[in-house]
Amino acid sequence: MKNHNHDELVLQVEDLLGEVARFRSLLEEGKRGHHILFKPEMIKMTFDHSHEELTDLLESQIDNINRVINESFDYVSIEEKQNFFASQPIELQRALVYGYFQLLESQMTDSEKVLH
């Protein structure tokens, strides 16, 4: 029984590390301007709002963002993840997109930053 729990834990850790690796590769793509987690209309809809509005929204939605990101690990393909994110309430969609771009910007050096 003890080995079964150990094996299960090892599988969970391997799955988590795989998700982390995939997320890092998505961030690297994002640095190149390829924002494949979100549909273009979601990105446009988000940035139709002011920085202040989006910052407030991000702060108020942080628990929902964490929940949705964790749930997104259940989806394998990028298309499934995109559809899952797009199925969330509009305010949460905006918070997800804005949070992603904030994270992306914090990971970039000045020479990597390009205005779109």
Instruction: Tally the beta strands.
Output: 0
Kindly provide the radius of gyration, computed on alpha-carbon positions and rounded to a whole number of angstroms.
16 Å
The biggest sheet amounts to: none
Q: Which term fits the overall shape?
A: globular
Instruction: For the record, give the distance between the C-alpha atoms at the N and C termini, rounded to a whole number.
Output: 55 Å
Percent strand equals under 5%
Overall mean pLDDT stands at 84
Order of helices and strands: HHHHHH
Helix percentage: over 70%
Q: Specify the number of helices.
A: 6
- Contiguous low-pLDDT stretches (5 residues minimum) are none
Q: Structural class of the helices, strands and pairings?
A: mainly alpha
Structure description:
Helix 2 (40-46) packs across helix 6 (90-107) and helix 3 crosses helix 6. It contains six helices and no strands. It has helices at 2-31, 40-46, 51-60, 62-72, 78-86, 90-107. The chain is 73% helix and 0% strand. By secondary structure, it is an all-alpha fold. The mean pLDDT is 84. The chain is globular and about 50 Å long.
Question: What is this entry, summarized?
Answer:
By secondary structure, this protein is mainly alpha-helical. It is built from six helices and no strands. Helix 2 (40-46) crosses helix 6 (90-107) and helix 3 (51-60) crosses helix 6.
Annotation keywords:
single chain; about 120 residues; mainly alpha; 6 helices; globular
